[in-house]
């Protein structure tokens, strides 16, 4: 029996004020804006694990994920690993090299969202 999966994606822009930092829904983005992208899901049969993957839009430079267990790709999703382990030529890959992210979601996991931050190029 299959399971139904519904994913909602949201983009928020970080704003600073005298009161601190706030996230507001992004309506318009400009170069240099710091953004947070959130993927939230619902699925009928949560008894099976699955993999949640997301392409990082070319207009964004990945910064970090809200989950330390994230795997990244710097080559369009062909190879995966941790950021500190992947190489781009002779150098270690940097966050700006990341093209895709993926998270392995365990069966029955209660936390139903993942997020990452980026900067608009």
Helix and strand topology:
Blueprint: E1 5-17, E2 20-25, E3 34-43, E4 50-55, E5 60-65, E6 71-73, E7 87-88, E8 91-92, E9 100-105, E10 113-120
Antiparallel strand pairs: 1-2, 1-3, 3-10, 4-9, 5-10, 6-9, 7-8
Rg on CA atoms, Å: 16 Å
Q: Classify the helix fraction into a percent range.
A: under 10%
Strand content: over 45%
Mean pLDDT: 92
Main-sheet strand order equals 2-1-3-10-5
Shape: globular
With helices defined by DSSP (H or I, 4 residues minimum), what is the helix count? 0
Secondary structure tally: strands:
10
How does this structure look, described?
The protein is mostly beta strands and 121 residues long. It contains no helices and ten strands. The strands form three sheets. Strands 2-1-3-10-5 form a five-stranded antiparallel sheet, with no helix packed on it. A three-stranded antiparallel sheet has the order 4-9-6, with no helix packed on it. The protein is globular.
Provide a concise account of the structure shown.
With 121 residues, this protein is an all-beta fold. Helix content is 0%, strand content 51%.
Notable characteristics:
121 residues; mainly beta; five-stranded antiparallel sheet; 10 strands
